[in-house]
Amino acid sequence: MRETKHVHLIGICGTAMASLAGMLQAQGHRVTGSDAAAYPPMSDQLAEMHIPVMQPYSEANLTPRPDMVVVGNAISRGNPELEYVLDQRVCFVSMAALIHDEFLQEREPLVVCGTHGKTTTTSMLAWIYEVASRTMPELAASFLIGGVAENFGTSFLVRLETKPFILEGDEYDTAFFDKGPKFLHYFPDAAILTHVEYDHADIYADLEAVKTAFKRLVNLVPRRGRIVAFDGSANVTECVARAFCAVERYGFEPSSYWQMKDFKGGASTKWTLLREGKHFADLELPMAGEHNALNATAAAAMAAGQGVPAVAIVEALASFRSVKRRLEVRAEVNGITIIDDFAHHPTAIRETLRALRSAYPDRRLIAVLEPRSNTLRRNVFEADLIDSLSGANEVALASVFKSEAIPTTERLEPQRVVAGLTQIGIPAQLYSDADAIVTGLTPRLLPGDVVAILSNGGFGDIYTKLPRAIAAQNSEAENGE
């Protein structure tokens, strides 16, 4: 696709799809897109790039006829634009295949994979390369991240003159016509594998199916390549066991190739990193949570193995500014802190709440959860969800997002989650939607509270409605109303 074309993206507001839209525009293509709903941060990024987002889906969005259509993996048969594309034989392709064909040929793809930590680790690795490139220009990297990295203010960057290309490798399926994981299209020169757990219950039958996907990824890394893999998971061990390339494990284990020692937590984290038992660097990260320190270690290990100096790694991690919707402070109102986190799995929820406990040790922690992801909407994770939410002092639970799309035999029953939490002494309440949560929760919030809003979607714009309601209540109290 070397000549300039009109490319239309169906499902453009997905994090990777919005990034691809920007990448294509940067190459000179005319880019349009459509989606059912647009919400920050990707809607903001698209607006800044002046890429039009048409809502709702309609055949009219494909007039004039585009030269190529990228079909997002959330798009299914029955979508009016997809049906038009098939009927009219418009050229179409998946996001992952187009990324490979247009951007990864003759590059050095460094792919970050795993059921948790991908976006943050990819952002850290990209920032390490950016800092290193100030003194070593050949390390200036392109990147594609499944979120907006705050150090860059964007989710993507394409450089034509250098080879490293850092990208997040998603294990979710590719498109309605390609049910394999997206990361199998990226053919990594080197890869990070953070965690392997059962996730995406809508497309993977069980943990064995998830492990099979990651084993296929491992099998793509060439002999000259390298895999940096977490050393605290039997599932990860199984997945990398038959790699043809070098495998470097990282974690707290004494046997780890990259061993973390003397970990100190809090609002920020510090630890010493050893490489094959020898001191490599003393690292500091301005983020809470052991899981974020592990992510940083994975990024440091990958960068070091690719020739990035330790001094650049230390500087980059110390100045890392996180990712939008990852422990992001959205507001401070009347002494109440509102946190936004892209929670999609019980393990992610548990680690988020653990990190907030570390960052705000003496404050009441209230978890506000929307079961929205295809994983959280299913009852297979019900017991795990209760356990992960027990890290909060109180829980406000919204109804299952689009519950009608989940078979009743598989659907999460929020009332059982509420009952399970109540049984172990955690006050919990079920609300119909975001507005009901704002109405019910606001009068009970006190100065010093930390409210963690957990969702992988727009959640009825609760991120602005709740702070606004708190401010309005405070104003009324001051005026004696």
From TrEMBL:
Mur ligase central domain residues: 112-303
Which residue ranges does the record assign to the Mur ligase N-terminal catalytic domain?
Answer: 6-99
Q: Which InterPro entries match?
A: Mpl, Mur-like_cat_sf, Mur_ligase_C, Mur_ligase_C_dom_sf, Mur_ligase_cen, Mur_ligase_N, MurCDEF_pg_biosynth
One Pfam family name from the record?
Mur_ligase_C
Domain Mur ligase C-terminal, chain residue ranges per copy: 325-457
Give the record's keywords alphabetically.
ATP-binding, Cell cycle, Cell division, Cell shape, Cell wall biogenesis/degradation, Ligase, Nucleotide-binding, Peptidoglycan synthesis
Q: Could you tell me which NCBIfam families the record lists for this protein?
A: mpl (TIGR01081)
Any Gene Ontology biological process: cell division
Q: Which GO terms describe its molecular function?
A: acid-amino acid ligase activity; ATP binding
Q: Which organism is it from?
A: Terriglobus saanensis (strain ATCC BAA-1853 / DSM 23119 / SP1PR4)
Protein name per Swiss-Prot or TrEMBL: UDP-N-acetylmuramate
